[in-house]
Design brief:
five-stranded antiparallel β-sheet, SH3 type barrels, alpha+beta, rod-shaped
Length: 225
């Protein structure tokens, strides 16, 4: 019976120790550093109050202090041989970067956020333009035609056309074909052509206006200028 009591007592002690350790983990004492968002010094006080005239001195940003205890929103610390209180949210375990570095990081984060917002706005505008253009394109059934060969030709250097999964500017782009790419057309309507590219073994849709059929190209070459 005595052994059982001792075993229960040891088990309870172990559980209390685990709970205490967990609590202490979030309320660590020991060396910590002053970290204020605005880089200002932290007021070191004799009492736990911001209303009273109790300021001992101001502790510079980044200064190492020793935490003795925690009390609500306050920390009892030792600094320059004196014990006193500071607001605990302005203490952190790791040494902070210099305030200039913190400011630079904050400024960069702000710029990144602005750039991200601008990019989203641009994408939103581009999507609206694509929808408007798509609404003007022929959306009637694409009918099978006798297969013919054509070449991607946009009329300017460095031109390229997209191969879409569906006959829509809002569809996924499967491939980008540069000027001069050879394609076989086997279905079309007024604005779209369903094509096949033998070298990549891919098929999809391109804008008909971006293609010149071989027979038309030959006629152009035969003309006298």
């Amino acid at each position: 019976m005595t052994r059982r009591i001792i075993a229960v007592w040891l088990l309870l002690s172990l559980m209390l120790l685990c709970v205490s350790s967990s609590l202490a983990e979030g309320m660590q004492t020991g060396s910590m550093y002053v970290f204020t968002p605005n880089g200002r010094a932290l007021r070191f006080r004799t009492t736990r109050s911001t209303a009273a005239d109790n300021v001992i001195c101001e502790i510079p940003y980044g200064t190492k202090v020793y935490v003795l205890d925690w009390d609500g929103t306050w920390a009892l610390i030792q600094y320059n041989g004196s014990d006193g209180y500071v607001v605990k949210k302005y203490l952190q375990i790791e040494r902070p970067a210099s305030f200039e570095e913190v400011q630079a990081a904050a400024a960069q984060a702000k710029l990144d956020k602005q750039a991200e917002a601008a990019q989203k706005e641009l994408e939103k505008k581009q999507q609206a333009e694509l929808r408007a253009r798509q609404n003007k394109l022929d959306r009637s059934t694409i009918k099978t035609v006798d297969p013919y060969d054509a070449t991607v030709q946009l009329g300017y250097d460095g031109g390229e056309t997209n191969l879409y999964q569906k006959a829509s500017l809002l569809s996924d782009i499967l491939q980008v074909f540069p000027d001069g790419t050879r394609l076989t057309v086997f279905a079309q309507n007024k604005d779209w052509a369903r094509v096949y590219n033998g070298s990549l073994d891919m098929e999809g849709y391109v804008l008909l206006e971006d293609l010149i059929p071989d027979e038309v190209e030959e006629e152009m070459l035969d003309e006298d200028y």
